[in-house]
Structures are given as C-alpha cells and as structure tokens.
Amino acid sequence: ERCRLVIERPLKRDNERAGGETSVLDVQALEEFFRANDIKMNHVNTVYREIFKRGRTAFWETPDIGRKTQDLLKENFVLTTSKVVEVAEAEDGSGAKLIIELKDGHRVETVIINHTHKARKRSTVCVSSQVGCAMGCTFCATGTMGLQANLTAGEIIEQVWHARQYCTPRNVVFMGMGEPMDNYEEVLVSLRGLTQQNQFNVCMDRITVSTVGVVNRIQQLADDCPEVSLALSLHSSNQALRTQIIPSGGRFTVDKLQAAIDYYIERTGRQVMLEYTLMGGLNDLPIFAKELCEFIQTRKVFVNLIPYNPTEIGALHGYMVPKDDDCIVFEDILNDFGIKTKIRWKFTGCTMRQRWCTSMW
Ligand code: SF4
C-alpha cells in the first residue's frame, strides 16, 4: 500500500517560524501557492527540474513558466530559509555534523554518516524535527532544553538540501533533535518532498522515523505511511527503569508500546527496529535481557544494542559505559530466545541521543 502523503488537511502552522519567507523546497507550500495564483501545476515539476537536475539556484529564472510566474516566485519564495553556520567533518571521512541556523535564529543539528569512506554515494542524513524536545530523556542534551519550537516541513527538507552539498543522501533518519512524532504533520509533509522523484528522490523505505514511543502517532504513521521504517528507542522494557531513563515513558507504558508495535507490524508487514542503549550496571543486567525477551516474544523486531556513549548530561545521572562481556551476555540471552540483534560497538550515530541510524546497512 502506498503512503498517503498528500495530506489535504491543513497544516497546523502554529509556530512562529511559519510566517515570513517560504522555501521553494517545501513542495506543499509551492503547490498551494500555485493553486491560489492559478499557475499551472505542471510548472512545479519544471521548477524542481531546474533546481535539482540543472542546479539552478536562481530558481525564479526557470524558463517556460512565464514572466508573471517568475516574478511571483522571486517575490514569494527563497531557496532556503536556513543556513549552515558550522561544519565539523570527521577526519576519516566517516561523516560530518552541520549546525544549521533557522530564520528565527534557532539552531539545529544535522548529521551526515558516510557508509563507505571517500565514496559519497551511500550516506545517511540524520535530521532534526524540533528545536529542543519535551521528552526529557536523561542521557540527552536536547532533552534539557525543553521544547522551544517545531520545525516546518520546509525546514526539515532544507536540512537534506544542505547535507546534499556534502554527500548524496541515500537514507534519511529522523533521529536528530526532537521527537518527530510530536511534530507529526510537518514530518509527514516533509516525507513527501524528500521522496518526490523530481526532488531528493529518497526511497520511502530508506526513511526511518524514530520515536521514544508516542503510541497514537506510531499507529497513525502505520496508517498514513506504511512504507516508512520505524525505530523505537526502548532502552528498557521494565516500566520503572524505562521511566527513570525516559521520563515520558510514564505516559507511554510498555503495555501500550507492545500494542502500538503490534499494530504497526500488522498494518505494514515491516519489522520494527528497537534501540537499546546498554548502560553499565543499570539496564545491561541479565534480568533485564530476560524481561526484554518477554516484551518481544515472537514480534517481528530487530534489536540494536548500543553500548552507552558517555555524555556530560548522562554523567550527571551516573550512567556508565558497560563492560564488553556484559554486552555479549545480554546479546546471547536475546539470541538464545531467537531474537535478531547487533551490538553497535563503534557508535557513529547521533551521539547526544544514543541513537543508532538504523538505515545504515
Ligand atoms: Fe528528545 Fe530524542 Fe533527546 Fe529523548 S533522545 S529528549 S526524544 S531528542
């Protein structure tokens, strides 16, 4: 079943950045504008062909769309509303982190992970969906900021545009700043721009939306877009321990998570990636591995075991790097139960958030 990405319901543009300049990369905004101004809809494709195939950054100069449309485009759209203000590239070529400033001055991070060094054809782009985050995960610096703003679909798409100057995006993962399910509609609209053939042309099943478990949105995503991949940051299937690590876990109880996963799997036929950060002496004990087996049972999931990557905020909570042997014991218990796993020894994902970019292989 194809994704229902053309959501005709009006977007809730209730954040301050929705006003002012609009990016021409926001396909829904461009279509709405063309419709309102009686401009032929096939000119949308013409404009994107000029930008993406011919590299025309002065997009309003697109030929064959008429002088009036050219003028309207120039008056009402910009290529990007955001700009890259800092780039930190890994010396070994394995990736880069972009700091992107939005038009209101807020800054978000976009991370590029290159799969094969030097060959830039297989890169994963990890995008942010919010400035700050309301979830307050105890190992995450973004969680200490609280929610400051939701990104618009255009601002999400622009991150991939900026990343495109450094790589060829093959996968896109919503694992940067913010909880994408809390900015659901803008995320959904951004999926459309990212997968448009005449734009970024990323395959839908190479896009992963990662959540700490907003259960109603997991179910809605399965309905709206069954082709997109889902990653769930679980970190513990023990209710008390999970709530300690992820305070919002109190709302999204493990029972509800199980029901949401079941719905997703049944509706989409896809497996769910479970992300489990192993913290020394905390959630890496065999008893919690057995509890995780009980949680998973025969569900169609794949478990990424991510040895804790030390962070300043995690240190405040006393989180420790697990011993290698304990990680292996934990994995063995899951494997003996028939659960597919992989330990991500070399953590190259979004380090602040202890998430592994699940579309990397
Ligand atoms: Fe928010 Fe993700 Fe950080 Fe949790 S890990 S606080 S969901 S950004």
Automatic annotation (TrEMBL):
Keywords: 4Fe-4S, Iron, Iron-sulfur, Metal-binding, S-adenosyl-L-methionine. The keyword Iron-sulfur applies. Its cofactor is [4Fe-4S] cluster. One of its GO terms (molecular function) is metal ion binding. The keyword Metal-binding applies. Residues 119-340 form the Radical SAM core domain. GO terms for biological process: rRNA base methylation; tRNA methylation. This is Radical SAM core domain-containing protein.
